[in-house]
Amino acid sequence: MAAVPDTRKALPTEPPRRGLLSPTNKRRWENFRANRRGYWSLWIFLVLFGISLCAEFVANDRPVIASYKGEILFPVLVNYPEEKFGGFLAETDYKSDFIRDEIEANGWMIWPPIRYSYRTVNSNIPHSAPTKPFWLMGEEQRCAGYPNGAADRNCTLGNLNWLGTDDQARDVLARVIYGFRISVLFGLALTIASAVVGVSAGAVQGYFGGWTDLLMQRFIEIWSSMPVLYILLIISAILPPGFWILLSIMLLFSWVGFVGVVRAEFLRARNFEYVNAARALGVGNGTIMVRHLLPNAMVATLTFLPFILSGSITTLTSLDFLGFGMPPGSPSLGELIAQGKQNLQAPWLGLTAFVIMSLMLSLLIFVGEATRDAFDPRKTFR
Amino acid sequence: MNEKKSEPILKVEDLSVAFHQGGKTSVAVDHVSFEIGRGEVVALVGESGSGKSVTANSVLKLLPYPAASHPSGSVHFKGQDLMNASEAELRRVRGNDITMIFQEPMTSLNPLHPIERQIGEILELHQNIKGAAARTRTLELLNQVGIREPEKRLSAYPHELSGGQRQRVMIAMALANRPELLIADEPTTALDVTVQAQILELLKQLKDQHGMSMLFITHDLGIVRKFADRVCVMTKGRIVESGPVEAIFTDPQHDYTRHLLASEPRGKPLPADDGKPVIMEADDVRVWFPIKAGFMRKVVDHVKAVDGIDLRLRAGHTLGVVGESGSGKTTLGLALTRLIASKGRIAFVGKDIADYSFREMRPLRNRMQIVFQDPYGSLSPRMSVADIVGEGLAIHEPALSADERDRRVAAALEETGLDATTRWRYPHEFSGGQRQRIAIARAMVLKPEFVMLDEPTSALDMSVQAQVVDLLRDLQAKHNLAYLFISHDLKVVRALANEIIVMRAGKVVEKGPAERIIEAPEMPYTKALMAAAFDLAAVKSDVIRQ
Fold first, then answer.
1. What pLDDT, in 10s, does the model give residues A359-368?
2. Most buried one in A142, A212, A359, B422, CB count within 10 A?
3. What pTM did the predictor assign?
4. Does any CB of chain A come closer than 8 Å to the CB of residue B446?
């Protein structure tokens, strides 16, 4: 027996403390990082998404923190009636000179860097809306809308419009930040929901095969040959537009994308010997599907995700552009594109929308490419 | 032998092969030297991973360069230095002076071209023979390799040929340019024993006719003994011993060679005892797959995978089911364990289970277990060994606490000769033999009465096979298990089975006590099978397919 190596080594009798990642996932993460472009795209995207998640603290028409008569207030989170400061409105207008003087006399307040929310109308625009970005105008001109001109105490960087305003005098930068958030959140929600539905459907088809597979495949063929855009237009003309309604309508059609890959993966893997072994052990169908087969399909699904995500964002944007998307007034990139189209004399609208959309989609595609690399088993042999 | 050595046709000196992967370098072949004389057959023998195929591939520089590299060594073919030859020079040698045949004839032939075109391509490439001349030469070659009715086979695609015929076509392609050296990389491993015997016979005959030299790579010592003039024993990238076949087999010098020679499956099956209870009983079991045709998909015929098998298996006994691939052995096993639908009576521990549903079978599943052929495929790569072995326990004995379950898993692993402290590792960290032990532990942890062993040793190296056979026999004696042992390897069957069923095309050819079947087979098919398995002799008979 001397020639046969004994590969067993003395090991502790307790299960080893596993790191955050299994060895396979560690290798995948290394592969992901090896794609520098995708890796940096992920970080840039996460930073942008992180900023947009805190949109209320970045761009708002209320102070983040205020101190008034010894009391610390959080106007961003809590809606204080104006009564509190001696006014009479239900909502406090912190930008009005009266409230501002009142609070500053009795304490202090800290503003977000951009003093506009997505729906705040700038009543001090220098010329008729849409207004140019302030850095395209001279110092005199950019403060022309304020009573005291350049000397006005309100003519500060926070109150100026970095990317100009749209045709309703709303700050474009604030709307872009909010719009980015809603696009990504919508995309993520739609992607996750479609993945859940699509993976389940594909799993059932692939695992059971036969008539189940045949009938569901035919149904999917009919379902996916429907003119999706027109159905979306019709439904959104009948139902009141909104985030969740749009999400459910689009979910009706988007889950189909996952079925193919997952079904193929299940069809391939359902006759693996370890699946047969599990059957021989008496393991139930559900457990076999989740424990033994789903991990195989997850690679295909995860590789697919970033592309579905960017697709969902594009669809939402196009619906918004056509006016069938989010309710009027919501911050949306599609609506910004529409405005850019209607106001060709204000190129900053269209340009901003273009830059933001292409940045977001390119980042997602780069991340998707790196994900694909990460899950490619052949990558290790390079 | 000495005068042959004076002018070797191939001379490999001090050859090393290293693979670079992800910044790591592993040495697959470590300073190997050997030479092949004119008309000589040299065998490279070793277990999987010993570097024998890598050595053979580096002769023609067929390795994936630049991932592979040669830190040292030289290869001379008739005085020509192949190691430093240009790609163009190598192409002249490849397929012309030196040709190769590979293990898997299905993947070595292009599935999209008929065989005439595949052979014709080689003729055109190296000898510029085209048209009618090429066809004549192709027919001549197919005749030479013993393809029956070669005219009809010219337009056949690879999938229309049997495994043996495909390997014959591969050999015809290798012979097309009258090579001086043929490198055969496990040419018969994927074939049935009877076909293997025919192919070996053919190679020997062709070698004698053409005075070819051969480099024969195999793990099968039986083939080496029968076929080779000289043998080089390889392990872990080194040649540990080389010399004339007779000398190596009668007087091995190195420990590893002795270990390899001693690793044939040995021992006798446990004595039969007719007083023991019948565990599994089957009458007229049939598994017919319908062939549907026409617009209405009417059933026009059946593929009779299993066609009327009777068997009776007692506790503590082993029933060996032998036969060639496609004879329905595995299908029979799956039918008996009710994993595929079948007709006929199946009784398990006295219960008539033939009509049980999947759900009704569930409480019985722990009493009948299966060990599959491929230890790489039968363990889920994403579960730890403890989870794999414990999965069945969680279903059949849900009352067990996590601690008790863990103890049972550890005990089962220890029983199969594994270190229980390794149970949190994943299957890929284990060798093939260890994985098969894990698969056996998964079956044993449920304390079954009946175990179906579906070729449990055929994916394993020879020395590991013997260990697994010993393990199975020990477990059988200890737990009074009934085995249904499915195998095409009669040496393994001989070491375990009390009774043997010889199957062919779904039917029983011969059945009876193992000793009688092996020593004195009655039917011509069984005779041919035994001759091929134990003496590697091809029996000229109509009962054997090509």
1. 999 999 999 8
2. A142
3. 0.74
4. yes
